[in-house]
Structures are given as C-alpha cells and as structure tokens.
Amino acid sequence: MRKLVVPLLVAALAATAGAWCWGARRAERAHGAWQAWLGQALAPLAVEGSYRRGWLRAEATTRLRLPPQTDAPGEAVVLEIRDHIAPGPIAWGDWRAGPVLAVVHSEAIAQLPEGGLPLLRAETVIDAAGRATTRFVSLPWDAAVPTPALAWEDVRGTLRFEAPSRRLAGELVASLLHVGGPEAGVSAHGVQAHFEYRESRHGLPLGELRLRMATLAVEASEDTRAFRVDGLELEQSQTLHDGSVDSLASLSYRALVRGEVAHAGGSLELALRQLDAASLARLVEGARASESASDDAGALTARLEILAAIPKLLANAEFELRGAFATVEGPVEFEGSVQLDEGDALSMLSPTALVADARARVPVVLLEQEFAEGLRETDPTSVDSRAEARRRLASLVERGLLVLEEGNYATHVRYDAGRLEVNGQPVRPGDLDTLRSDARQAFLARPPG
Fold first, then answer.
1. Which of 284, 285, 292 has the alpha carbon at shortest distance from 46?
2. Which of 126, 184, 207, 319 is 20 to 30 A from 311, alpha carbon to alpha carbon?
3. What is the rounded (10 degree) CA torsion for 161, 167, 172, 177?
C-alpha cells in the first residue's frame, strides 16, 4: 500500500504543478492580449506593461501615459494599474467554485507630482473560456489636483469582457461626479449607466449605451449662465447592416431650471444612417494615427487619409434631427433631414445631389422677445425694440417666409435639386438676403447664452 501512496502523491503534485504552470501561462497570455487591446482602443495614450510570474502568484503593471500637449508643455499624466494575479485552475488563496484561468485583484493609481493617489480597487475573475468579469469600487476623492478640481462619491460597477468575440459590457452607478475650474463646474448626481458593445470586422464598436442622471448642474461665476437639468436620459446605439452603419442618439430631460424659472421637459433625437462602414473605419484609423503621430509629416498623412475617406463615407448618407422643448411661453419644436444622392462617391460635391428639409414652430411671444433683445444689443438707442421686432416679423409673414399657426410662428424650408423653397414658395435672392440680414442683426450680435 505504501508503495502506491508515494507514486500517487508524486503524480498528484506533478499534475497540480502542471495545471498551475498551464494556468499561469494562459493568464500571462490573456494579460498580454488585454494590454494589446487596450493599446489599440486608447491609441492616443502610450500603453506600457510588465508581467512578473511567481511560484503561486504573479504581478503585472499597466501604465497609461498621456503626453503633455504641444501648446501647454508639462509633465505627462500617468495612470498606473497594479494587478496581483492568482493563476488557475485553482487560484491559490482565491478559492472559487469552479476552475478559472485567473483571479486578479487590481488597484488604479494616478501618479501626480504630489505623489500617487489611489482611485479605485477591482476584482477580476477570468474563466477558462477567456471571459473576464470585473467588479470595481472607487475610493472617495475630492482633490484640487490635477486642475481642474475633481470629486466623486460611491462609484461602483461591473465590466464583462469576452476576448474571443471582443465584446465589452458593463454597468456603472455613482452618487456624485464633479469637475470644476475657477469660473465654472459641472456636477452629476444619481448617475446610472449601462453599455454593451462588440467589435465589427471593420474594427468599429457596435452596440448601445444608456445613461441616466437624477440631476446635472452647471455652476458658473455668472448666475445667468448657471442651470440645472433634472431627469436627464441619454441613449445611443450603433448597428451594421449590409456594409453600412446606422448611428442613433436621443436625449431627454424632465425639467430645466435656470435661475428661478423652471421649464418642463424636452427631447432631442439625432440619426445618422447609411454611413459606409469601411470608410468610417478608415476615418477612425486616420484619427488615431493623427493623434499618435510623432511628427508633422505623419500627422499630415493621417489627416489626408481622413479627407480621402469622407466622400465615400457620406455618398449615401441620411441625417435626421428632431427636437422639442418646453418654455414658459409654450413649446418649441423643430425637425430636419438631409439626404445625399446615391451614386458616385463624389456626387455629393454637386449642389443638385443634396435634398434637405426642415420645419420649426416657435411661440409668437418667445420669438418676438428674442428678436427684440437681439435688436437692443445691436442698437442700444432703439426706443421700442419690441415694436420693431413685430414689424420685421410681420414683414417676413407677409413675404411668406413665416406662417402664423395657432399662436406660433412656423416655417418649412426645403432644398431639392438646387431649388430652395420656403413654405412651398420658391425663394428669390432678395428675400434670402433680407432674411439673412434680419437673422444676423437679431441674433448674431447677442452674447453666447
């Protein structure tokens, strides 16, 4: 019996050591693949990595280095991710219910001139198929370095990455996210995010993002520029069909508060359809090359590559924009679309290749008020800018450029095959010049906001 025990024990130890060596090598390859993917996804950043294998555990370090801008020289910002890896299939010291490729405990640290600042801690479990699940939690931070000031509270979430299919999904929640400077700041409360993306054969991200915020507040040194948005929701998706990419985005909010005035909700939708996928991938690659170029010649070559991709990218493209938001005076509504003629990639350069359509409705009181304020900015000596605004708007109605509809000014503009129509009537050059002049005088002279 004793003669059998010793060989069996040796065999068991050899099998365990062999399994651990297999798991350690697989974990090292998986970590290298992760660093390679990270370097591709974050092309503007310099990604550096090291891996040190031990007997029962391994350690790895990944550094993301953002070089200083050429117009603002200074020290590079470095984010360091330190991983403590327990290779599978047993993961000594990190027992799991089933076999795993590795269990990784990570810490992200911002390396600043003042020293290292811990940002978050995470645990990643990589299964035998190469699927990684990461759960992370942030450390509270409220710091004035680096400028601008940053602060966050109770940030946590989950990431899921599948190396074979190159899928990335996750959720994030945060009680507070804040970024601020000397004159302005932005704070988000009650943040919830969900995303799920995969990489197409062109190297483009396909999937969806949903983001919700209980409150988004913009603080400013001038009270007139500060506002708060309640119940903000943002959704974005990108899909691929027959070699073309469709990108959809929508934004909505429950209320907008500015000063002591609260407005009801609003929404905005944007759709980009029939974008050539190969050209879009070429444009994205050119943008990455431009960001990472080490000299002016490389940056110029990358920008020329971007310009060369645009005609085919937009050859059959369709754009749609639709929005509505509430004001004290009533709802403002608008929608528009642009379609480029199918055919030769360079046909978009022809004025007859474009079809555009736009509609808008604005409450009479609101448009008269905005028009009058623009006139006052242009001519402070004006005695009765409100009366002058009404006169000019009435002139636009008389010429058919505006239409009165149930207490609203409305207009419908269409451009098709080189012909411009407003409210079904062709626009004469003189009317167009007058409209442009009135708009410039009423609005362009006003300060932003």
1. 292
2. 207
3. 100
Residue 367, H or E segment: helix 364-378
Pairing mode, strands 419-422 and 408-416:
antiparallel
Residue type (1 letter), 165: S
401 to 37, 291, 316, 418, 420: CA distances (angstroms): 54, 45, 30, 18, 12
Strand pairing of 131-138 and 408-416? unpaired
Alpha carbons 412 and 359: distance in angstroms, whole number? 4
Question: What are the tens digits of pLDDT across the range 167-196?
Answer: 889 999 999 988 877 677 899 999 999 999
User: What are the backbone dihedrals phi and psi of residue 386, each rounded to the nearest 5 degrees, phi first?
Assistant: -65, -40
Please write the tens of the pLDDT for every residue from 115-173: 777 888 888 888 877 788 889 898 776 555 445 577 888 899 999 988 767 788 999 99
pTM listed for this prediction: 0.74
Q: Are 359 and 411 in contact (CB under 8 A)?
A: yes
Structure tokens at 362: 């604005």
CA distance 426 to 403: 15
